[in-house]
Specification:
By secondary structure, the chain is of the alpha/beta class. It folds into two domains: about 210 residues, inorganic pyrophosphatase (n-terminal core) (Alpha-Beta Complex), CATH 3.90.1640; about 120 residues, Diaminopimelate Epimerase, Chain A, domain 1 (Roll), CATH 3.10.310. Helix content is about 40%, strand content about 20%. It has twelve helices and twelve strands. The strands form two sheets. Strands 3-2-1-4-5-6 form a six-stranded parallel beta sheet. The chain has a six-stranded mixed beta sheet with strand order 7-8-9-10-12-11, with helices on both faces. Helix 2 packs parallel to helix 4, helix 4 packs antiparallel against helix 5 and helix 5 packs antiparallel against helix 6. The two termini are about 25 Å apart. The chain binds manganese (II) ion.
């Protein structure tokens, strides 16, 4: 049996024990949650509740309007810093495995009887017994699917439902870029096929909500960002930046500008794209990195306290201006590119 299966089994054992006593499990998706983090959190919460646990999905902020099409968002709870955390029986970080990705809610993780995570990011810290981190999975929803699948078979009762199917697909579709990124696994396709066979899902509508629906302001800021891109290192690095004034001018939130870093990656000859966004909370600069060829985005982000995947990573540099951030990050990126060779594969 693989190590991952062992870990999944151990986590399930703990959950089944908690369910038997009607214990309480809290899910903590990473800050600035995305459809993968929230989809996996709500799906697992629904299923754990169906088998006898009390469950809470505790988020750092209200869901952005762009995600309002997802089901069951009314079941999540927004954490208010300073409020007392219940002493949960199990706290699970979702789509992350490090306490610093869940901000102030880390207190709730620390005070729980058991703590762990369900995640698919590259591991850079030591993992605990209940950290189920599967970097080969294309999304955390893919890992959540396996957990729910195991529980269905173990308990011989149906646990997937229409809402869960939509949530899991939303996470998988987002994190695989509609099943197109290099992280897309055969398992992701098999899971999608299973969900589409078993439930009546409007896939076109879901894709439209996740990828196509936009606003005039967002179209305008896309033009602003892309028309101000800077080409450096003979076209191997493509850089764009977003100031607070640019966001204000177009009346746009900075929730999902990261997509532009992915779009820029399509340019001929480009190996790394970086999008620098001025951020207020925390005050500093957020950097989204996308890569091709030999550049390991996760490894690069790690040295700045960030993380992610081989082809998509990010970090936030606190207490620094846009120009300072670009100076030091780009110097390091040029250096990394000057020594890297060949084609990395995830
Ligand atoms: Mn994810």
């Amino acid at each position: 049996m693989s190590k991952q299966q062992d870990k999944r089994r151990l986590l399930l054992e703990v959950v089944l024990n908690i369910a038997a006593d009607g214990g309480h499990v809290v899910f903590l998706p990473h800050e600035r949650f995305d459809p993968d983090a929230i989809g996996a959190s709500i799906s697992l919460a629904e299923v754990f509740r169906a088998i006898g646990c009390e469950t809470t999905v505790l988020v750092d902020a209200k869901p952005p309007a762009a995600m309002s099409h997802l089901p069951l968002l009314n079941t999540i709870q927004v954490y208010e810093p300073g409020l007392f955390c219940l002493s949960y029986d199990l706290a699970l970080a979702i789509d992350c495995h490090e306490a610093d990705r869940i901000g102030a809610r880390a207190d709730c993780l620390a005070q729980s009887r058991f703590r762990g995570s369900v995640d698919h990011h590259i591991v850079s810290t030591e993992l605990g017994r209940l950290d189920l981190v599967v970097p080969s999975a294309s999304s955390t929803c893919e890992v959540a699917f396996e957990i729910i699948w195991d529980l269905e078979h173990h308990l011989a009762k149906p646990l997937f439902n229409d809402d869960i199917a939509i949530l899991l697909l939303a996470g998988a579709i987002t994190d695989t870029g509609r099943y197109s990124y290099s992280n897309t696994t055969p398992t992701a396709f098999r899971q999608a096929a299973f969900l589409l066979e078993r439930f009546d899902i409007d896939l076109a509508a879901l894709n439209h909500e996740l990828f196509e629906r936009t606003t005039i302001g967002r179209l305008q800021i896309k033009g602003d960002i892309l028309s101000n891109m800077v080409v450096i290192d003979d076209g191997r690095i493509l850089v764009a930046s977003v100031t607070r004034d640019m966001l204000k001018l177009r009346d746009v939130e900075d929730d999902d500008l990261a997509n532009f870093a992915s779009e820029m990656r399509g340019a001929n000859g480009v190996e790394v794209t970086m999008l620098f966004t001025e951020s207020i909370n925390p005050s500093g600069v957020r950097v989204n990195i996308r890569s091709n060829g030999c550049f390991d985005a996760a490894q690069f982000a790690k040295q700045f306290g960030g993380g992610g995947h081989l082809r998509a990573a990010g970090m936030t540099l606190q207490g620094i201006t846009l120009d300072e951030a670009k100076d030091c990050v780009l110097r390091e990126a040029k250096r990394a590119l000057s020594v890297c060779r060949g084609e990395l594969r995830s």
